[in-house]
Design goal:
The chain is of the alpha/beta class. Helices cover 31% and strands 24% of the residues. Helix 6 packs antiparallel against helix 7 and helix 6 packs antiparallel against helix 8. The strands form four sheets. It has a seven-stranded mixed sheet, sandwiched between helices. The protein is globular and about 60 Å long. It contains eleven helices and 20 strands.
């Protein structure tokens, strides 16, 4: 039997996706000893649309990532297609966010962020799968048990664990933090195609009129995102609820691709590059609380996908940076009540930053689940450029604060008028607490 290896750190981050790598980078930059665990070996595939909004670009710049290097493809904005109409809109440019987006395959993207974390001082352990949390006598998380390379048993101990282990949220479930069933969840599928006609397109393209075979309009959209390397990322995302049922998204993608022009090359299996892959999209803070007893949740593990547009990378990175900042401040205090008060700032700050916006997004998602509302949107959305500019800024969360124009004022007012919540500090708390 292999002897269990033991490693100690100040913080353990489980999962080296965008959220985990960002958290590890910012922790290491602040002098915190951080161990970053990743179950796979880089590079590795992830299901994603590969599109990065200006809000995500902002996060990459904060990390010092060289987005002018080969492999990054800039885009000017969004092209919407619905009911035979097309509308192109450039990204809004503000004091905070740039007026462009990017695409980069997750095959490269995650590796780049992990390498940034290592360069800052994080200790990366690949082929290391966290299996269960380690608990002290009081039930506090004090590390994780893992299986390392060649199934080597390993224990990683630390005063704090950050769970960036994705939609399954195994660490959260192990300590009793379950998914909130009433919060929205989406399903997305994607595939790469060789497309000389589309791979250098300056716009991300979204088709809004998704339909079932019976003609009913679905709450979601399909996309064609140019990668600049001869390929495009094509896919679709739909909202799951009791009215839409199982929704055979893989078959729906094939049906939609048959509608695209033949010269784009998206109808032919010969142009496909790799298999069709799918994943769930946990939206609107659908797992709470985001901190409990030594365990922080970031990104998909905390259900942080934007319920308005299905964007996840941005919010994984933002929550990772916030978690790192809170953790560094907390670890500078003595263990006990003072440190715990500092750690409780994380769910409170997540609520302050995104809680009202996500509740507004959940309300929008509920409306989109109504076929009559979805049909109204797809019929009229691209008819008004001004209305679509408003929707892009709202659904992509690209407002400035304080507001700089009338659109910002209106959107920020809508968010302020949305009821506040508890910040998840008591959600799913055991009855004995």
């Amino acid at each position: 039997m292999n002897r269990t290896l033991r490693t100690h750190a100040q913080v353990i981050v489980v999962g080296a996706g965008p959220g985990g790598a960002t958290a590890a980078y910012h922790l290491a930059r602040q002098g915190v000893d951080v161990a970053l665990l990743e179950k796979a070996e880089f590079p590795r595939e992830k299901v994603c649309g590969d599109g990065l909004t200006p809000r995500a670009v902002h996060q990459l710049v904060r990390m010092g990532v060289d987005i002018t290097a080969p492999g990054w493809k800039r885009n000017r904005g969004l092209r919407f297609v619905s009911r035979g109409r097309t509308l192109e809109l450039d990204w809004p440019q503000s004091g905070r966010f740039p007026g462009y987006g990017l695409t980069r395959t997750r095959h490269d993207f995650d590796r780049i962020l992990a390498e940034h974390a290592v360069a800052a001082g994080a200790r990366l352990h690949t082929r290391t799968k966290a299996t269960t949390p380690l608990l002290d006598a009081g039930g506090r998380v004090v590390g994780v048990s893992a299986l390392g390379p060649d199934q080597q048993p390993m224990d990683f101990t630390a005063p704090l664990v950050i769970a960036a282990d994705g939609v399954a949220g195994r660490l959260a479930l192990a300590v009793g933090i379950a998914r909130l069933e009433k919060r929205p969840v989406g399903t997305a599928v994607r595939r790469y195609f060789h497309s000389p006609a589309k791979h250098q397109d300056p716009y991300l393209e979204s088709w809004l009129d998704l339909r079932r075979p019976d003609g009913r309009v679905l709450p979601g959209y399909s996309w064609i995102f140019p990668m600049g390397d001869g390929r495009v990322n094509v896919g679709l995302g739909v909202l799951n609820d009791s009215r839409t049922g199982s929704m055979e998204t893989r078959r729906m993608l094939t049906t939609w691709l048959a509608r695209t022009p033949e010269e784009w090359g998206l109808r032919s299996e010969e142009n496909a590059d790799g298999p069709l892959r799918g994943a769930a999209l946990p939206m609107g803070f659908n797992r709470l609380p985001h901190y409990r007893n030594g365990l922080m949740l970031i990104g998909d593990a905390g259900g942080m996908v934007n319920p308005c547009n299905g964007e996840g990378i941005t919010y994984a990175m933002e929550s990772g940076e916030l978690a790192a900042d809170v953790a560094a401040q907390a670890l500078a205090r003595y263990a006990g009540a003072s440190r715990e008060r500092a750690l409780e700032r994380y769910p409170s700050e997540m609520e302050a930053r995104l809680g009202r916006y996500y509740r507004l997004g959940c309300a929008f998602s509920a409306l989109m689940a109504r076929p009559s509302f979805t049909s109204l949107v797809t019929q009229n959305a691209v008819k008004s450029p001004q209305a679509m500019r408003f929707m892009v800024r709202l659904l992509s969360n690209l407002t400035d604060s304080p507001s700089v124009d009338a659109m910002d004022h209106l959107i920020n007012a809508m968010i302020r008028c949305t009821p506040s919540g508890s910040g998840g500090r008591t959600a799913n708390r055991p009855r004995s607490a």
